[in-house]
Amino acid sequence: MNCLFNKKLILGFLIFYVQIVNVSNIACYRCRSLTYAFCGDEFDPERTAISVCNLGEVCAKLYSKQDTYVMRGCFTRGTCISHPMLDECDVCDGNLCNGERPTFRSPFLTNVINLLISYVITNHLY
């Protein structure tokens, strides 16, 4: 019984460690359509710069009033709310997720699922 408890404890710590290591800065496409035409409707990821965001920042694709301007890059989550000149703002928190199509992959959701799986595994080992 004690050996089983130790195995569960070790497995739990390993899975928890993997989750903590998984938390890191993300990379986003960075460009402005006023400077680079390939940043707008005809987005070209091969020609677009990539930036590593500061911890706590997310990727975003911002659209200005009258659809005359697109900007991609790292921003704080509140950027979409606080910027009065935006028509639309797509925010995401995965690597290079502010490309052509919005993605809905969330590291937070992935971590929650992984924690649930680790809970089930550690509590059902015999």
TrEMBL record:
<keyword id="KW-0325">Glycoprotein</keyword>
<feature type="signal peptide">
    <location>
        <begin position="1"/>
        <end position="23"/>
    </location>
</feature>
<keyword id="KW-0449">Lipoprotein</keyword>
<keyword id="KW-0732">Signal</keyword>
<dbReference type="InterPro" id="IPR050975">
    <property type="entry name" value="Sleep_regulator"/>
</dbReference>
<keyword id="KW-0812">Transmembrane</keyword>
<keyword id="KW-1133">Transmembrane helix</keyword>
<dbReference type="GO" id="GO:0098552">
    <property type="term" value="C:side of membrane"/>
</dbReference>
<keyword id="KW-0336">GPI-anchor</keyword>
<protein>
    <submittedName>
        <fullName>Uncharacterized protein</fullName>
    </submittedName>
</protein>
<keyword id="KW-0472">Membrane</keyword>
